[in-house]
TrEMBL record:
It comes from Eucalyptus globulus. This is Core-2/I-branching beta-1,6-N-acetylglucosaminyltransferase family protein. Keywords: Glycoprotein, Glycosyltransferase, Membrane, Transferase, Transmembrane, Transmembrane helix. It is a single-pass type II membrane protein. PANTHER family: CORE-2/I-BRANCHING BETA-1,6-N-ACETYLGLUCOSAMINYLTRANSFERASE FAMILY PROTEIN-RELATED, CORE-2_I-BRANCHING BETA-1,6-N-ACETYLGLUCOSAMINYLTRANSFERASE FAMILY PROTEIN. The chain crosses the membrane at residues 21-47. Coiled coil: none annotated. One of its GO terms (cellular component) is membrane. One of its GO terms (molecular function) is glycosyltransferase activity. It is found in: Membrane.
Amino acid sequence: MKSQQNQNLPTSMFKPFYSHLQFTNVLSCIIIFGCGLTLGIVLTFHLQNLSFNLDFTRLDFSPTQSLQPPPPAPQPAPPASRVGLAEYLKPAPVTHDMEDDELLWRASMSPRIREYPFERTPKVAFLFLAKGPVPLAPLWEKFFKGQEGLYSVYVHSNPPWNETEPEDSVFHGRRIPSKGVSWGNVNMIEAERRLLANALLDVANERFVLVSETCIPLFNFSTVYSYLVNSTQTFVQSYDLPGPVGRGRYSSGMSPHIKIHHWRKGAQWFEMDRRLAIEVVSDRTYFPLFQRHCRHNCYADEHYLPTLVNMKFGASNSNRTLTWVDWSKGGPHPNRFVRNEITVEFLERLRDGNGMRCEYNGKATSVCYLFARKFLPSSLDRLLRFAPKVMHFS
C-alpha cells in the first residue's frame, strides 16, 4: 500500500505545472496571432496610402489647365484590301534592273490554263528597235491618240543614249534596259528577245510587232489593231533561198539540231502572238547555235526567226512580213525616203499592197502591209500633213 502511494506521488505533484504550461502556450499563440494581425493591418494601410500618393502625384493640378476627358476608345482598323490576281499580275516597270537571264526566265512563264479567270482586253505591244530617239514620234503619237488600254510601247535604244521623252509622250518612260547593238551582229537578236521578254511581263499583251525608228503605220490604229488581234496566224517572213546570201550562210556546226534543209531567210521585222513570243524567249536550243556559229557575214537577224518558225511553227505562220521595204535599188540596205518622195499617191499605193495580193485568215486581200520603212526625219512634216487624209488618223 505504501509503495503504491509512493508511485502516485510524482504525478500529483506535477499536475499544477502542466496546467500552467498549457495556459502559457495558448497565451503565446494568441499574442503571436495578434501581432501578425496588427502587422498585416499596418502593411495594408501603408500600401494603400503609397498607391494613393503615387496616383496623386500623377495628377496635374496646374491652374492653367482643366481636366481633360478620357480619350475616345480606339476605332477598329479598316479591313485590309484584298490582294487578288489583278494585283499579282500588274506588269513590272520597264526600268527594272534584272539581268538578261533573269528577265528571260521570268518572261518564259506561261499558265497552262488558257481561259483567263478575269476580264482581259488584249493589247498590241509595239517594240521599237532604235539607235537612239524615235524621230517620227509625232506621227506615232497621232496613231496612238485615244487608244489607251489597247497598246503598249517598248523602246530598245543603244547606250549611251538615255534621254527622256516629254511626260505627255507615249514614249515617256518606255525605254527598257538596253545593250549595244551593231548591224548584222547576233546581238540584234538579243535585243529583239529583250524587247519580247519585257513585253511578255504584261499579261494583257497578246500580239507583238517589231518596228524601227524609221517605220511608219500605213493605217489608223483601229484597222491595225483589228487586223492583228483577229489574225489566226503569225507574220514572220520565211523562205528557202539557194545561193551565197541564203543557204550559203549556213554553218555545218549547227547540225544535227539545224540542218541545211531547215535553213530559212526572211525580213527581220516580225509580228507574232503570245505563244510564239514565249517560245522565242525560252529557246535554249537553237539560239545558242546562232550565237556560236552565225557570225560575220551570216546576219542572224535574217535567219534566226525564219529558221526557228519554219522548224517548229510553220503551220501557224503566214511566211510573210507586215512591213513594206523597197529593195529595188539593190545593195545591203533598202531605199530611204525623204520629204519630196512622200505623196498621197505613194502612200495610197503602199496601203493597197503596192499591187500585191496576199492571204489573211484564208481569204485573199490587198491589205498586205500595215507598216513601211525607211522614212527619214525630213519626211515627217509631209507625213503629218497627209496622215489625216490618207491613213485616216483622227
